[in-house]
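Quick note —
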Amino acid sequence: MKRKPKFGQNFLVDDAARHAIVDALGDLSKRTVIEIGPGHGAITEIVAGRCHRLIALELDRELAAELTFRFRDQPQVQIVEGDVLKADFRALVPQGETIDVLGNLPYYITSDILLQLFSAGSAGLIDRAVLMMQREVADRVSAAPGVRDYGLLSATAQMNAQVESFFTLPPSAFSPPPDVYSTVLRLEFAPRFAELGVDAVGFNKFLRRCFAQKRKTLKNNLRVAGYSPEDISAAWPVGVPAQARAESLALEPMAELYLSLSRTSALASAATSE
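Predicted structure written out below.
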């Protein structure tokens, strides 16, 4: 337990917190759960006694071996040594089923893991996730439009899931203690692409363009992305200030602008081809 972490791990040692994290997933008796970065198994041992099946993804070879030995007599537990960013969630999910996910996300790849989960959620593979991450990142994920923390990660998360902030833990809840506080979020996956009438690939690309430079107005970011001032003006949603920044817009007017620009661009292309 005192072995020096090789991948910057900070292992959860707060007993109340580990139980609260698992409780947040709800009834697991018929569920398959994927745990990201189980470490020494502080949360794994609780989940293993509650779920139908547990797949624990651990990058550290020595920890994976430790966990494989520890849970050798529990056939519902599968320890997989590997990188979560390279994991094929579709292959891990039983045919016709969905999964729940939990994990203490490594600080340096939190955004990458979230994007992978959003992709799997959009494919209908994930129902719920309970994730612990650096407090500042959690604040960005859960931020509402109009506040400073709202940005591309916020919009992307909230296009894919309903985000709920549960609690924040101090560095003393971990060993070794990190230099930051950590927040636990629960994500109920409910992609809004169909509801807002937008295609996922196109709209995600559009959001990246809108948030490309946070200090620029939305119109300026769109001009840099290649939209003409005339098309932007014609597509601009009623009630949105001309100098608005992307961080001030909710997803609904953002989707309205995307659809209007798509129609305007399509008409312009058709006229040019004639």
